[in-house]
Design brief:
Order of helices and strands: EEEHEEHEHHHHEHEHEEHH
CATH topology of the largest domain: Rossmann fold
Protein name: ABC transporter ATP-binding protein
Number of helices: 10
Structural class: alpha/beta
Distance between the termini: 32 Å
Number of strands: 10
InterPro entries: AAA+_ATPase, ABC_transporter-like_ATP-bd, P-loop_NTPase
Organism: Pyrodictium abyssi
GO molecular function: ATP binding
Strand content: 15-25%
CATH superfamily of the largest domain: P-loop containing nucleotide triphosphate hydrolases
Bound molecules: adenosine-5'-triphosphate
Domain ABC transporter: 4-242
Helix content: 40-55%
Radius of gyration: 18 Å
CATH architecture of the largest domain: 3-Layer(aba) Sandwich
Length: 252
């Protein structure tokens, strides 16, 4: 059974905005799966439903066999959600932040002290920062890129069944994005952590994702391996494939 199953999700927000119009996809264990599409396509809404933070109007999601609407507490033990902009915790140092979030996540799963310590060491390693810098610098004083790296580091280091990363590299410069992509790709493959991420950047998902879903206006217009989609739309790259898929979907 796939690790993540999204089946017929519909979300109508109060006020009548139809954010999701019936989307379905599934993600296998260890896969890096990308949702791509423009602003307002419904990526964050999908993530918030999977992460148990939002109830769908209809449809169903299971993570590792657990229905997220019926058993949200069980589901939360299996997943980590890193929103695009994590606020708060500004006054904690990087190390305090990592210790806090790792402790909260792992103790809910009944981890031992030594497992928590191991995850913290792993997270420190994944940040690429020295422990000294993490000990000295408050979250509010990191650059946006470093903050994202700290957040992604803990999300991967606790080895969840599913890591949901909302636009992990948005707003980062070329070097910081490259480095963060490398960390995600390498870690997911090495530890078989299933990753679902969103991005506006087609080149990024082409590099990072095993499979992608192309979204527009609350619908998935196509889904497949990046190379397969490029070929299917007779395109030079995923960006061009996306544009052709959108044009085709519009004329149907
Ligand atoms: N709380 C809300 N109340 C009403 N409408 C909302 C709410 N949150 C999102 N929407 C609307 O739902 C639609 C989908 O938004 P969503 O944030 O899921 O898209 P997105 O693909 O993540 O976009 P972005 O790339 O800009 O983050 C948009 O039209 C948005 O305006």
């Amino acid at each position: 059974m796939p690790l993540l199953v999204v089946d017929g999700l519909v979300k109508v927000y109060p006020g009548g905005v139809k954010a999701l119009r019936g989307i379905s996809f599934s993600v296998e264990e260890g896969e890096v799966f990308g949702l791509v599409g423009p602003n307002g396509a419904g990526k964050t809404t999908t993530f918030r439903i999977i992460a148990t933070l939002l109830k769908p109007t209809s449809g169903r999601v299971t993570v590792d066999g657990v229905d997220v609407a019926q058993e949200p507490y069980e589901a939360r033990k299996k997943l980590v959600y890193v929103p695009e902009d994590v606020g708060g915790y500004r006054r904690l140092t990087g190390l305090e932040y990592l210790s806090f979030v790792i402790e909260v996540f792992m103790s809910a799963r009944g981890a031992t002290r030594s497992e928590v310590r191991e995850a913290l060491e792993e997270a420190v390693r994944l940040t690429g920062l020295s422990e000294e810098k993490l000990r000295r610098t408050r979250m509010q004083d990191y650059s946006k890129g470093m903050k994202r790296r700290v957040q992604v580091a803990w999300a991967l280091a606790v080895k969840p069944r599913l890591a949901i990363l909302d636009e992990p590299t948005s707003g980062l410069d070329v070097e910081a994005s490259y480095e963060l992509r490398r960390v995600i790709a390498e870690y997911a493959r090495r530890h078989r952590v299933t990753v679902v991420l969103s991005s506006h950047n087609m080149l990024e998902v082409e590099y990072l994702c095993d499979r992608v879903a192309l979204m527009k206006d609350g619908r998935i217009i196509d889904i497949g391996f990046p190379g397969e989609l490029v070929e299917k739309y007779n395109a030079r790259n995923l960006e061009e494939a996306y544009m052709r898929a959108v044009a085709g979907a519009g004329s149907r």
